[in-house]
From TrEMBL:
<dbReference type="GO" id="GO:0030288">
    <property type="term" value="C:outer membrane-bounded periplasmic space"/>
</dbReference>
<dbReference type="GO" id="GO:0009428">
    <property type="term" value="C:bacterial-type flagellum basal body, distal rod, P ring"/>
</dbReference>
<keyword id="KW-0975">Bacterial flagellum</keyword>
<feature type="signal peptide">
    <location>
        <begin position="1"/>
        <end position="32"/>
    </location>
</feature>
<dbReference type="Pfam" id="PF02119">
    <property type="entry name" value="FlgI"/>
</dbReference>
<keyword id="KW-0966">Cell projection</keyword>
<keyword id="KW-0969">Cilium</keyword>
<dbReference type="GO" id="GO:0005198">
    <property type="term" value="F:structural molecule activity"/>
</dbReference>
<keyword id="KW-0732">Signal</keyword>
<comment type="similarity">
    <text>Belongs to the FlgI family.</text>
</comment>
<comment type="function">
    <text>Assembles around the rod to form the L-ring and probably protects the motor/basal body from shearing forces during rotation.</text>
</comment>
<dbReference type="GO" id="GO:0071973">
    <property type="term" value="P:bacterial-type flagellum-dependent cell motility"/>
</dbReference>
<dbReference type="InterPro" id="IPR001782">
    <property type="entry name" value="Flag_FlgI"/>
</dbReference>
<comment type="subunit">
    <text>The basal body constitutes a major portion of the flagellar organelle and consists of four rings (L,P,S, and M) mounted on a central rod.</text>
</comment>
<protein>
    <recommendedName>
        <fullName>Flagellar P-ring protein</fullName>
    </recommendedName>
</protein>
<keyword id="KW-0282">Flagellum</keyword>
Length: 378
């Protein structure tokens, strides 16, 4: 009897351990990302739509048709569709009409009858699109087919005001506006989602380690041989042929969590704003750096030259130029082998270098071969 109780207790302990192990396997690793956040399905992407139309109802801020005659021609062609012919060879100033470019992004799987947002921007010299209405405009895809029809009242965030004396003030960009839900789709873009016996995940950031880890995670979840990494971006996965089963299958796959491979060492320098980003794995070989700057000041002044008494000379104004050169004290600091990001930041802060000076230091380190990272200037 006692042995049977011991066996039951042992079985319950083993069962508890197995349940605990299964729960631990479900816990995602540190810094794990879902597949849907780091990869996209091949052939399933949004589509860009464009069109050219007319905005009417502007309060005198439309195109100057003498400088943009194509606006008048487009307006005449638009009226001709409704049986209103314009006299041939006649020039006229519209002022309340502007020719515009209409752009939209049609998400994947968008069905006919669904609405999408559009952006409207002036193509000619309209001062503002505020208060305007977009007339019916056909939006076409890259294949030239019409996929949506746009029209509606514009929402313009910019403001432009001009005085009678020619002075003006502009806030933001009044020549660009948006129409939320301003286009209705009339055609569906076919995707390759239900084609073939495989689907392919494309990583948003190319990395061989991430591709290998993704294929391994899918194989661990769905069974060996289900997925294989094709290259640093693509992972090919076997999928069921039935559309409903494929949707459920992808739903399971896109929620798998993996730890991405770490990016290569990079230093990003924005030359316009002075922003500098130093990656975690940036290292520096042994190097000694000194950095100083010269301050050159040039000032112009004027002096008066008086002639000697009882001479025939004249009083003249003589320009005087003063040049002053000041060299700031520079400090030298040493980078040991394997210097980390923290060491670099502390050394630069100790010197008191500005972002522009830091960019010069990093470029010099790269040229000397001491910076073990890619230096990218944007």
């Amino acid at each position: 009897m006692f042995n049977q109780q011991r066996k039951q207790i042992k079985k319950s302990i083993v069962a508890s351990i197995l349940v605990a192990m299964q729960l631990l396997m479900l816990v995602a690793p540190a810094h794990a990302d879902r597949v849907k956040d780091i990869a996209t399905l091949n052939g399933v992407q949004s589509n860009q739509l464009t069109g050219v139309g007319l905005v009417t109802g502007l309060d005198g801020s439309g195109d100057q048709t003498t400088q943009a005659p194509f606006t008048a021609e487009s307006f005449a062609a638009y009226l001709d569709q409704f049986g209103i012919p314009m006299p041939a060879g006649q020039t006229f100033q519209l002022r309340n009409v502007a020719i515009v470019s209409v752009q939209a992004e049609m998400p994947a799987f968008t069905k006919p009858g669904q609405n999408i947002d559009i952006t409207v921007s002036s193509l000619a010299n309209a001062a503002s699109l505020r208060g305007g209405t977009l007339e019916r405009t056909l939006l076409t895809g890259i294949d030239g087919e019409v996929y949506a029809i746009a029209q509606g009242n514009l929402v313009v965030g910019g403001l432009g005001v001009q005085g009678a004396d020619g002075s003006s003030i502009t806030i933001n960009i009044p020549s660009v506006g948006r129409i939320p839900g301003g286009a209705q789709t009339v055609r569906e873009v076919l995707t390759g989602f239900n084609v073939g016996d495989h689907i392919t995940f494309n990583l948003k950031r190319a990395d061989f380690t991430s591709a290998r880890r993704l294929s391994k995670a899918i194989n661990d979840f769905m069974g060996a041989g289900t997925a294989e990494a094709v290259d640093a971006v693509s992972v090919k996965v076997r999928a069921p042929a039935d559309p409903q089963a494929r949707v459920a299958y992808v739903s399971e796959l896109e929620n798998i969590q993996i730890q991405q491979g770490e990016a290569s060492a990079r230093v990003i320098v924005n030359s316009r704003t002075g922003t500098i980003v130093i990656g975690e794995h940036v290292r520096v070989s042994p190097a000694a750096i000194t950095h100083g700057s010269l301050s050159v000041t040039i000032s112009e002044s004027f002096g008066v030259s008086q002639p000697a008494p009882f001479s025939d000379g004249e009083t003249v104004v003589v320009p005087q130029t003063n040049i002053n050169v000041t060299e700031e004290d520079s400090r030298m600091f040493l980078f040991d082998a394997g210097t980390t990001l923290s060491d670099i930041v502390q050394a630069i802060n100790a010197v008191g270098a500005a972002p522009g000076d830091l960019a010069a230091i990093l470029e010099a380190l790269k040229q000397s071969g001491a910076l073990r990272a890619d230096l990218i200037v944007i």
